[in-house]
Amino acid sequence: MKVAALDFGSNTFLCLIAEVTEEGLGTIYSDEVEMVRLGQGLNQNKKFHPEALERADRCMQKFAQTIAQHQPEKILAMATSAARDAENKDELFQLAQKHGIPLEIIAGDKEATITYQGAVSAQTNPQQGLLVIDIGGGSTEFIFGQGPKLLTGKSFDIGCVRLTEKFITAQPTSDTEVQNVVQSLDKALNEVRSLMPLGFQLDTILAVAGTPTALAAADLGYFDAAKIDGYELTEEMLAHWVQRLQKATVEEKIKMGIPEGRADVILIGALTLWRALKIFQQTRILVSTRGVRYGVALEIARRAHSTAHTATRA
């Protein structure tokens, strides 16, 4: 079954067109990403900014054209942290309806489940103890699991756009502001550590979404999805990136290879990954190019199978 799975995040919108079966994901026909910054000013104003809604409208129009080109059997978009927080979320629903895109706003716990399903869809070791980290614009999800089985997870309001707007007033950024960010991150990360199941052996941290893929691409010097998927970010590399990013202007970060729509918030993402290694006493993080959109595709297949099974029983 060909599906269109969309992820409307607080910073980026993504659209995946793929074949899915009961066994998992098959052929990828299209995988697009657009910087929308839906969460612009949301932490202060509690509403979607008109400019953010205009960018969302243009992005949905582009994705609708891609969907029309590929003619999937099922379409589903899931919106995350920004949509949960916005008082005028109905305006986002109206845009999605205008472009023929079914939209759901998912709770943080459901987002963690969807993220985990997508992130581990390419993992082959059923016994591997995993921590999946998904740094979004508004929230960041931390999910423990063993192979394909999710054990526990939680969503925290420490996304890179949210914390940038809350703590960062200038770029380059002062030591004081970085220390304030680290205190906020460490508080959340220590709570995450307390959620770790009793007797759980952590083997690998998987990081999904734009922060780890942008850092991997900048480290490589170019974007190659095949090389970025599984790329190792060590503690030493992340500490180096934190130092470079803290001392740089937004323009300098773009010259380093960080995408324009992410450069002003990448410091928060790099700090999150670096502190996670410290708190969990790990030496490396593996980058995954899979995330919410892959989980949405699998969720579409799960629902279709459940519906077919119910119809058969009836």
From TrEMBL:
GO terms for molecular function: pyrophosphatase activity. InterPro entries: ATPase_NBD, GppA/Ppx_hydrolase, Ppx_GppA_N. Pfam families: Ppx-GppA. This is Ppx/GppA phosphatase N-terminal domain-containing protein. It comes from Pseudobdellovibrio exovorus JSS. Residues 17-302 form the Ppx/GppA phosphatase N-terminal domain.
